[in-house]
Structure formats: C-alpha cells, structure tokens
Amino acid sequence: MDSDEHKRVLDPEHDTAALKALTHPLRIRLLGLLRQDGPATASELAARTGESSASASYHLRVLAKYAFIAEAEHRDGRERRWRALHTVTSWSNEAMESSEAGRAFVSLARRRQLEHLESSLARHEADMAGGRLGQEWVEASGISDLMPRLTAGSLAELWETITGKLEELTARDADDPRAEHVVLLTAGLPLAPQGSEGVDQQDREDADRQGREDADLEGREDADLHSREGGTREEGTS
Question: Is the overall model pTM greater than 0.70, yes or no?
C-alpha cells in the first residue's frame, strides 16, 4: 500500500484483503460520507443510509481494520465516532484490469460515483432553492457532457492537467472562508463506433471521410437557408 496525507493508493497485488473489503456498496458509501461530511457515529451514518446501526457499525469496523478510517475525537463517552484517514482512494486502472477482483472493484466504484452525482445534484438544487448557497454559485456550477475526439495519449494528458490544476486551486482556496465543498466528477470513457466488430481501418477511414463530406454538405445547405431567411442563430451549450 502506498499512501500520503490525502491519498490512499490501492495496489491489487499487495492490498488484496483491503481491496476485497472495499468491494462492498455500503462500505464505499460510508467512506464517502465520512470524507464529504466529516466525522460521524454509526447511528448518524445509519440514519443517512437507511441501514441499521448494527450494520453500519459492523461495516465501519471493517473499514477501520484496513486503515480506511479511524476513531475520531468523541463528543462524549457513549458512542464511537469515526473519521476518514484520506480524502481520496486512488489506483492504477492498468493494474486493476489484471485481476477479476480489481475489475469488479473499479466497476462498483464507478457506479457508486454515478449515484453520488445524482444525489449531489438533488442536494445542490435543494441548497440553492433554500438559500443555503449564495448567488455567486449559480454561474459557476454545472454539468458538462462533451464528446471530444482524442487519442489515448491526449486523454491521459487531459487527466494530468485537470489533476494538477485542481491541486493548485485547492491549495489556493484552502483557507478562504468563501470556499465550499464542490462535488467534481470527471469521466473519460472512450466509445467504439456502433457496429465496430469486424470493421477494419479502411472502413473507418471511409466512414470518417463520408461523414466529413456529409457535414460539409449540411453546412452549405444550412448557410443557404439562413441566407435566404436573413436571420441568425444562437446555440447554447448543455
């Protein structure tokens, strides 16, 4: 296991037991709640997840056994409080791909992230409507679903750029009282063309060329249409 103050790095070869422990939907959710909202008791987490206190307590002890969480300072002596030891869990996709357990964990983690996005959107909208966030967040917040064409190398470079800039801005805003927790989910999921089975390189090149020709034709027809109408068109982004 490699780690630093903020990151827990999982190696599927050396962290087999820890990886198996984390391959559980409720444990991933409990860990995420501790990271997002700070220390909490099993009872508090049970109320947030709809689980029993006994179930939450058991899964928290498993997370503690493999050093994902630890006991936090207690408000009183009646119930144990837990805190996350790291802000993120990281891994190598290539290393995870080499084992069935690794692939299962990555798939589960990604689907949990999608659930997190959905719940975060609902919470964000409620916070804005309830006046718990200022109007300065209206323009800054949003979701993008762009589909650029990139090589594998360019996608890797994009990840590095995003990570580096995020670390820079996080450090800059660490002590700024105006800063809030921001749910930032990024995805880079290449998609093969529909019906790509058995399609060779020449077929793809022919399809790309035909697509460019069709786009050029459509553009000329569109320009002619607007020229005749004498109007302009504005397009928004999603």
Answer: no
Q: How far is C-alpha 83 from the chain's CA centre?
A: 21
Tokens standing for residue 225: 């249409």
Q: Which residues, including other chains, have CB under 8 Å from residue 233's CB and lie 6 or more apart?
A: 226
d(CA 85, CA 70): 7
């990886």: which residue's tokens?
19
Alpha helix ranges (H) inside 50-200 = 53-65, 93-96, 100-129, 136-140, 152-172
Q: Which H or E run contains 83?
A: strand 81-84
Helix (H) or strand (E) holding 205: helix 201-229
The tokens of 108 are what? Answer: 């589960």
Q: Average the pLDDT over 147-157 and give the result.
A: 96
Give the position of tokens 């749910």: 183
Q: State the pLDDT at residue 101.
A: 85
Residue percentage of the chain with pLDDT more than 70: 79
Q: Which residues fall within 8 angstroms of residue 12, CB to CB, at 6 or more apart?
A: 19, 91, 95, 96, 98, 99, 101, 102
CA distance 168 to 162: 10
Longest dimension (CA), the chain: 79
How far is it, in rounded angstroms, from Cα 61 to Cα 171?
Answer: 32
Side chain identity, residue 126: A
